[in-house]
């Protein structure tokens, strides 16, 4: 049987793992697909490649398809989200100088308490805190605005969020362009390795189930050839399941380390995969449970309520109508396609497509099509609950 | 008479920047400014307040320009990527050539087209130069390896240069591999046995 080629773009990051593993370990081949992986130099270029049809699918920042649906950003095309590739995986880090000030003020770099870390950061920051994020439409930016906003730091008056490409993040910290950053692995660990910064908090401490990366396709692509869509979704979902087994993470880090992928030492990649991170220049280690999640707790399911949360936040900051933005955002996360294509493949399918975001502070068993399903914690650090039903 | 278009070119490499300026100047009377420093890019651009920004799409710094498309952008005038307004697939052609253009809203397509056409032509040339350079480099490296392998075979077997090359070629053909690959394997093996 000859394999059907399918081009898929990615940014060299630890959380591109489901796409890379689907290709490297035969999950795509099993579905009759020959994935042609294309590494992109920037998120805007990856988005344009997908919008203009140079590639068929992409590893994408979850807020990008939502922003496009709201008419924000440079491109007028629309994307559909087929599944969530990973939850969380972001780290917040500070420059060495700011880390010193935090330590001087008695902060313990505990790497778990977002309220304590945020208060310490606000106390130690200068007049206006400058924070680098990879892209204006990213979970990194959303988590920062949410976290520091809830603690009273208003953007743009007291918070200046700037776009800095991840490979240049360490450089920007060293050059004094930014005081802090929120970035995906391996770039936080690389800043620590290079001695320019220290890690303050994992993104999961702000929102325990933030959809960080998604599998995106052009609007209409999924319906144009349903067989093809199912094959792609199953291959990527099985790669996610493989990544969900802790025993496989060392192997995964070796594969991701290759020059054609991340070209970063496997030991550094493993930190982001396992959530055991070196947070300070002196080599102190912290363990963050659920640092990046590829599978467990229905991590792959594209909840409409996740999209709604992103839409509501984007609307608020960009002066758009909230209810309308939520409506448009919900349509982007295609939980219907997930049900149709992955239910028969054995995925646990929740009974509903929305959940109360932030309501679970521990794993909870809920009704699912095949009986029951364990949902992982999704709490916000401030205990807030986002109810998408109350918004309509 | 509309005002002269101001164009910012984001390019680290001085030679390439000069070539882009040349081709833009040949296309029309524009006010062209080059930014080579990528830190604080959005701020540097907003200081110039240009009509058009051109940037290499392989540059990771392109993501910094995305801020210009937002309402809270540091630029006074909103910017869009030149996309749907081009009926002739200009954006697609630009992306394929390796250049991306950010254009202020409301700028007429007939004023943008000559700028983009010139940039596209220039970036096509860059791509060609890059692949030619890579091919030349590869050919040179292969020649060097084959020469070293030939020397090894000559010494080990006490044969002449032509004979040594013939032996390499025959081995390659027998194994269905390239002469350069066989030569490389030999050079590596010889290094190990030294």
Main attributes of the structure:
heterodimer; A: 392 residues; alpha/beta; D-Maltodextrin-Binding Protein, domain 2; 6-stranded mixed beta sheet; 16 helices; B: 194 residues; 2 domains; 5-stranded mixed beta sheet; 12% strand
Structure description:
The complex is a heterodimer of chains A (about 400) and B (about 190). Chain A is about 35% helix and about 20% strand. In chain A, helix 1 (about 15-25) packs across helix 11 (about 225-245). The mean pLDDT of chain A is about 90. Chain A folds into 2 domains: about 5-85 and about 210-260 and about 295-350, D-Maltodextrin-Binding Protein, domain 2 (3-Layer(aba) Sandwich), CATH 3.40.190.10; about 90-210 and about 275-295, Periplasmic binding protein-like II (D-Maltodextrin-Binding Protein, domain 2), CATH 3.40.190. In chain A, the strands form 4 sheets. In chain A, strands 2-1-3-10-4-13 form a 6-stranded mixed beta sheet, sandwiched between helices. Chain A has a 5-stranded mixed beta sheet with strand order 7-6-8-5-9, sandwiched between helices. The longest helix of chain A is centred in the middle third of the chain and has 18 residues, at about 225-245. Chain A contains 16 helices and 15 strands. Chain B has about 190 residues and is of the alpha/beta class. Helix content of chain B is about 60%, strand content about 10%. Chain B is built from 7 helices and 5 strands. A 5-stranded mixed beta sheet of chain B has the order 2-1-3-5-4, with helices on both faces. In chain B, helix 1 links the parallel strand 1 (about 5-10) and strand 2. In chain B, helix 1 packs antiparallel against helix 5 (about 110-155), helix 4 runs parallel beside helix 5 (about 110-155) and helix 5 crosses helix 7. Chain B starts with 5 loop residues before the first strand and ends with a helix. In chain B, about 35% of the residues are buried. Classes of the chains: A alpha/beta (about 400), B alpha/beta (about 190).
């Amino acid at each position: 049987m000859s394999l059907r080629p399918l081009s898929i773009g990615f940014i060299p990051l630890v959380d591109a793992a489901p796409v890379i593993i689907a290709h490297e370990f035969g999950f795509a081949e099993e579905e009759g697909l020959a994935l042609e992986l294309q590494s992109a130099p920037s998120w805007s270029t990856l988005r344009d490649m997908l919008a203009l049809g140079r590639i068929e699918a992409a590893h994408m920042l979850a807020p990008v398809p939502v922003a496009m649906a709201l008419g924000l950003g440079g491109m007028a095309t629309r994307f559909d989200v087929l599944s969530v590739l990973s939850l969380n995986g972001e780290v917040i880090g500070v420059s060495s100088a700011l880390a010193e000030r935090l330590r001087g003020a008695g902060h313990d770099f505990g790497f778990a308490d977002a309220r304590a870390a945020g208060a310490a950061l606000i106390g130690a920051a200068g007049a206006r805190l400058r924070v680098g994020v990879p892209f204006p439409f990213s979970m990194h930016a959303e988590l920062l605005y949410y976290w520091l906003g809830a603690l009273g730091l208003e953007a743009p008056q007291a918070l200046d969020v700037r776009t800095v490409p991840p490979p240049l993040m360490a450089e920007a910290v060293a050059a004094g362009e930014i005081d802090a950053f929120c970035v995906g692995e391996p770039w936080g660990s690389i800043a620590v390795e290079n001695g320019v910064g220290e890690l303050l908090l994992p993104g999961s401490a702000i929102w325990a189930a933030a959809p960080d990366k998604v599998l995106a396709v052009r609007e209409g692509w999924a319906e144009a050839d349903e067989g093809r869509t199912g094959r792609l979704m199953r291959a990527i979902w099985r790669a996610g399941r493989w990544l969900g087994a802790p025993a496989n993470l060392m192997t995964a880090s070796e594969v991701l380390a290759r020059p054609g992928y991340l070209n970063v030492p496997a030991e550094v990649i493993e930190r982001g995969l396992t959530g055991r991170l070196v947070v300070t220049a002196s080599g102190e280690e912290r363990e963050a449970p659920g640092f990046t999640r590829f599978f467990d707790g229905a991590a792959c399911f594209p909840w409409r309520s996740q999209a709604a949360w992103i839409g509501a936040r984007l609307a608020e900051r960009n002066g758009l109508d909230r209810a309308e933005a939520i409506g448009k955002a919900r349509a982007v996360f295609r939980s219907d396609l997930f049900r149709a294509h992955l239910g028969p493949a054995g995925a646990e399918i929740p009974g509903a497509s929305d959940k109360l975001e932030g309501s679970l502070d521990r794993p909870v068993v809920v009704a699912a099509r095949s009986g029951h399903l364990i949902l992982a914690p999704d709490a916000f650090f401030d205990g807030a609950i986002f109810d998408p039903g109350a918004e309509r | 008479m509309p005002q002269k278009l101001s164009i910012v070119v984001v390019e680290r490499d001085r030679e390439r920047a000069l070539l882009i300026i040349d081709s833009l100047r040949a296309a029309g009377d524009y006010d062209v400014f080059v930014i080579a420093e990528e830190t604080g890019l959005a701020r540097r651009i907003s200081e110039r307040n240009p009509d058009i920004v051109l940037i290499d799409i392989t540059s990771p710094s392109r993501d910094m320009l995305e801020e210009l498309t937002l309402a809270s952008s540091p630029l006074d005038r909103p910017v869009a990527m030149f996309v749907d307004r081009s009926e002739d697939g200009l954006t697609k052609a630009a992306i394929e050539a390796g250049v991306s253009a950010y254009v202020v809203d409301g700028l007429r397509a007939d004023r943008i087209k000559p700028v983009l056409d010139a940039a596209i032509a220039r970036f096509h040339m860059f791509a060609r130069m890059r692949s030619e350079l890579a091919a030349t480099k590869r050919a040179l490296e292969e020649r060097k390896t084959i020469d070293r392998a030939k020397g090894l075979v000559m010494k080990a077997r006490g044969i002449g240069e032509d004979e040594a090359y013939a032996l390499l070629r025959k081995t390659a053909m027998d194994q269905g591999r390239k002469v350069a690959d066989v030569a490389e394997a030999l050079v590596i093996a010889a290094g190990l046995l030294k």
